[in-house]
Amino acid sequence: MELKEKIVKAFDQRFGGKGTLYASAGRINLIGEHTDYNGGFVFPGAIDKVIMADIRPNGTDTVNLYSIDLDEKSSFGLSEEDAPSQQWARYVFGVCRETLKRGGVVKGFDAVFAGNVPLGAGLSSSAALESCFAYALNDLFNSNSIEKFELAKIGQSTEHNYCGVNCGIMDQFASVFGKKDCLIRLDCRSLEYEYFPFSIDGHRLVLVDSVVKHELVDSPYNKRRQSCERVAKRLGIDTLRDAEMADLEAVKGDISAEDYMRAKFVIEEKERVLDVCDALNRGDIDTVGRLMYETHRGLSKDYEVSCEELDFLNDIARECGVVGSRIMGGGFGGCTINLVADDKYDHFIATAKEKFNAKYGHAPKIYDVIISDGARRIEE
């Protein structure tokens, strides 16, 4: 049964009749990793994997939710003290509260939702959930008067204030602003953005999920962030966004070898995002792929956020003639994102499954993704 049919049927069974259907997408980031907190650029796009909800105002001050995927329900009021205990329901509660805090209108509603965004693969299913409900509440109760950037910030604030995750804006931004066949270059400092056509005829994007997440004894993200901040301070600038490699070389003797490597990656990655945008404008897919491999090498050797399994998958991609491949996300497990020519696809997938299974005792999961629209109302 199609996702849409499943949701409509479950809504009728639980609440009777029909609501209005909304969806928002998971996301990929083609290039631009660990650049967001350094004031740089990211280059995400929404994908054809979504969270979808059927929603109808109920004339009360109570929200009634049913998650098909978890087979769980939750009901809560709209005041701060009404926060639900279930973690999944807090995402929707947080969106309601953050909308109200901004002067928006939210009233009671009934909703059924489900999704096909793979969990744990780094595709931001939580941002898709937040964006779906933020868009829906804006449409149902606020005549779409809340600007799209504010919808993304509602999702981000939900993570910060109700879910305990101090995330950046990229995931929610991509989920709200996603546009079919386009990637979005977002300037994480000014929040200016630009769409770039992502036409890759004869190629496809595929994620290879290692199904591995290494438990970390310290906080590696905070340590890397501190390295970047120390170098920026030594250079007398706010963030590494304003640094060039010549600036870094000039202070190399004054900073630790580790701080040097971390800063080197960030400065080079800033330039790679811009170079990928230029290459796409020229239709130069080979340069896009080469820069993806360079990012993987930097993440593995300079930023040191890779792991054995992800490096192994990257090596297989290179051996199979994949155009570009790199870690996607924070690292230490998760996925590689791969730009694959159609005629190399079957061989690459078969080889990755066979070799990874032989070495690690389980096959990776494979997700083909297509760049698609973000948050939207689904017309019947």
UniProtKB/TrEMBL annotation:
Keywords tagged on the record: ATP-binding, Carbohydrate metabolism, Cytoplasm, Galactose metabolism, Kinase, Magnesium, Metal-binding, Nucleotide-binding, Transferase
Residues covered by the GHMP kinase N-terminal domain: 91-179
Coiled-coil ranges from the UniProt annotation: none
SUPFAM superfamilies to which the protein is assigned, alphabetical: GHMP Kinase, C-terminal domain, Ribosomal protein S5 domain 2-like
Domain Galactokinase N-terminal: 9-56
Annotated GHMP kinase C-terminal domain residues: 279-344
GO CC aspect terms: cytosol
Cited Gene3D superfamilies: 3.30.230.10, GHMP kinase, C-terminal domain
Its EC number(s): 2.7.1.6
GO MF: ATP binding; galactokinase activity; metal ion binding
GO biological process: one example: galactose metabolic process
Family: Belongs to the GHMP kinase family. GalK subfamily.
Protein name: Galactokinase
Species in which this protein is naturally found: Duncaniella freteri
Highest classification ranks of the organism: Bacteria, Pseudomonadati, Bacteroidota, Bacteroidia, Bacteroidales
Gene designation: galK
